[in-house]
Design a protein that fits this description.
- This is Early light-induced protein 2, chloroplastic-like.
- Belongs to the ELIP/psbS family.
- The chain crosses the membrane at residues 86-104, 116-137, 157-175.
- The chain is built from seven helices and no strands.
- It starts with a helix and ends in a 5-residue tail after the last helix.
- The protein has 181 residues and is mostly helical.
- Helices cover 59% and strands 0% of the residues.
- The protein is elongated, with a radius of gyration of 33 Å.
- The longest helix has 29 residues, at 109-137.
C-alpha cells in the first residue's frame, strides 16, 4: 500500500507530469486505478491489476531470425560460415577416402597423393565448395536445416576431428615410414 501511494504521488507531482510526454504509455506501464492524492498522505488507495490479453498468450512468440548476409566477403570471411564448414567437409571425405584406399590398396597417404590423388583432391574440393556455397549465397544457414542427431554443431565437430585426423595420419605415416593400417 505504501508503494502504491509513493508511485501515485510521483506520477501526480507537477515535475513528473512535465517530464512525461506520453501519459498513456505511463498508465499502460503502471496498469492500476489512478487516484490522485490531495491533502494528507494518510488516505487509503486501492490498486487493481488489469490483465492484458495480448501478453497472456499460451505460446511465446519465437525470437526473430537474424538476417544472414549473402555478400561474398561476409560468407568467406575468416569467421564467416563457409571456410570452416567447407574445410571440415573436405577433411571428412579426405580422411574416409585415405583410409579406404589404404585398406584396399595398401598405399600410404603420400603415395596416394603422388599417384593421381591431386586431381581427385582438386575435383572434390571444387565440387564440395560450390555445393556448400550455393545455399549460403541464397541466405540459407546450416543451422536452420539441422535437427535431431545430425545438427550443424555435430557436423562442425566431426569436421574438426577429421582435420586433426588427416594431420595425425600424415605425421604418423611420415614418422613410421609406412601405412597406418
Amino acid at each position: 500500500m505504501a508503494t502504491s501511494t509513493v508511485m501515485q504521488t510521483v506520477l501526480a507531482s507537477p515535475v513528473a507530469s512535465s517530464l512525461v510526454k506520453n501519459r498513456s504509455r505511463v498508465t499502460n506501464l503502471f496498469s492500476a486505478t489512478y487516484v490522485p492524492l490531495r491533502g494528507s498522505a494518510s488516505k487509503r488507495v486501492q490498486c487493481k491489476a488489469e490483465l492484458d490479453d495480448r501478453n497472456m498468450s499460451a505460446e511465446p512468440s519465437p525470437p526473430p531470425k537474424p538476417k544472414v548476409s549473402t555478400k561474398f566477403a561476409d560468407v568467406l570471411a575468416f569467421s564467416g560460415p563457409a571456410p570452416e564448414r567447407i574445410n571440415g567437409r573436405l577433411a571428412m571425405i579426405g580422411f574416409v577416402a585415405a583410409m579406404a584406399v589404404e585398406l584396399s590398396k595398401g598405399q600410404d597417404l603420400f603415395s596416394q597423393i603422388s599417384n593421381g590423388g591431386v586431381s581427385w583432391f582438386v575435383g572434390t574440393s571444387i565440387l564440395l565448395s560450390v555445393a556448400s556455397l550455393i545455399p549460403l549465397f541464397k541466405g540459407v544457414s546450416a543451422e536452420s536445416k539441422s535437427d535431431g542427431v545430425m545438427t550443424s554443431d555435430a557436423e562442425m565437430w566431426n569436421g574438426r576431428f577429421a582435420m586433426l585426423g588427416l594431420v595425425a595420419l600424415a605425421c604418423t605415416e611420415y614418422v613410421s615410414g609406412g601405412t597406418l593400417l
